[in-house]
Amino acid sequence: MKITFLGTGGGRFVMAKQMRRTAGFVVKTKESLIHVDPGPGGLVYLNKLRLKPRRPDAILVSHAHLDHSHDTAPLIELMTDGGRMERGTVLASDSVVNGIDGFIPAFGDYHKNMVERVLVSRPGKKYTIRDLEVTATPTWHDDPTGTGFILNDGETILAYLSDTGYTEELGDAIEKAEPTAIIFNLIFDGEERTSHTNLDTVRSIIQRVKPQVILLQHFGARITMRRMEGFLAKKIEKETGIETIALRDGDVVTLPWFEERTRKIDEFI
Ligand SMILES: [Zn+2]
Ligand SMILES: [Zn+2]
To answer: What is the widest separation between alpha-carbon atoms in the chain?
Structure first.
């Protein structure tokens, strides 16, 4: 499994000013290309990768905040060749698909009709997308229908928690999955328990599971402006004894983690 981080920025301020890119990340397995959480820039930076084939097979959207969902419709057009082929899967939260709790849907019927399958992600449910089994995980965040995703290609289990604070329910789901790697959307550097990912979230999860590597991204404005991400990664690594990486825009990570340690993180796009 190869993950390319098209963008590592998070939150409204980083997104609006593009202090870091907010394009999400793509996961490549033997049979699939999956774009996860395409915020503004998702379509642009996926195209810049010049992948062959370039079309995603699925788009996963964890919740309706724009830094996660904005480029869903443009990516549907790429995935379906402008609607000429009815293909691909969109797996997204209820808020993204149906526009509830004050959010408008990220795409309308026009785009829905281009896609082979539109699935609403519900915590605990499993979905099969080509060679991947995707399990939706619960979140505690401003969007009550948001979910994270656990991606399993039979060799590697990648847990992407999305924007969430720690809950027992989330801890249970991650412990059960025994992930190879965990991606944390570390928007804040705080230590208190809140509905956004911070040091408390990372610590609470890592008390329950021991992945090979901890991947930090989705850094908010304070972390980005003060360039704290490297320091925070070192702090987490020291506390947990698990290798912790502060990702940069364009980083490529190959899992399982023990292979080719030096090359994978310096392959910039
Ligand atoms: Zn976010
Ligand atoms: Zn959010």
So the answer is: 52
Q: Ligand 1 is a single-atom ion; what residues have CB below 5 A from it? A: 10, 67, 163
C-alpha of residue 98 to centroid of ligand 1, in Å: 19
pLDDT digits (tens, 9 = 90+) for 227-261: 999 999 999 999 999 999 999 999 999 999 875 55
* Structural domain contains residue 269: no
Does this model's pTM top 0.90? My answer is: yes
Range of the domain at 155: 2-264
* Ligand 2 center–CA 115 separation, angstroms: 25
| Smallest-distance ligand from the CA of 188 | 1
What is the 260 CA–ligand 2 centroid distance (Å)? 33
Distance from the alpha carbon of residue 113 to the mean position of ligand 2, in angstroms: 27
Looking at residue 53, what is its pLDDT?
87
Structural domain count, the chain: 1
In a domain, 114, yes or no: yes
Per-residue model confidence as pLDDT tens digits over 71-113 = 999 999 999 999 999 999 999 999 999 998 889 999 999 999 9
